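tool_call: predict_structure(chain=1)
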Amino acid sequence: MTDSSVIDIGVQSILLATKLAAPILAVSLCVGLLIGLLQSATQIQEQTLAFVPKLAAVAITLVICGHWMLDQMVAFTEGLFAMIPHLIQ
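tool_result:
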């Protein structure tokens, strides 16, 4: 196992983590921004008002994107298992 292969696996794992987190973070950011604008316009400063819609939006995003996320993780893991014979040499 060379240094370049370790770095390559590390880069691939960081890119996968970023790709998997992006939909959840983007939805949470957008919902938080919309709720923040709504709270500023109405001057209602209730913290649970921001938490509950974000929680629901993240849950819906996981339901919609969960299959794709799982496919990505399984493909990455299968790729790592397939690389084991080449890494041992």
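agent: The radius of gyration is 19 Å. Proceeding to next step.
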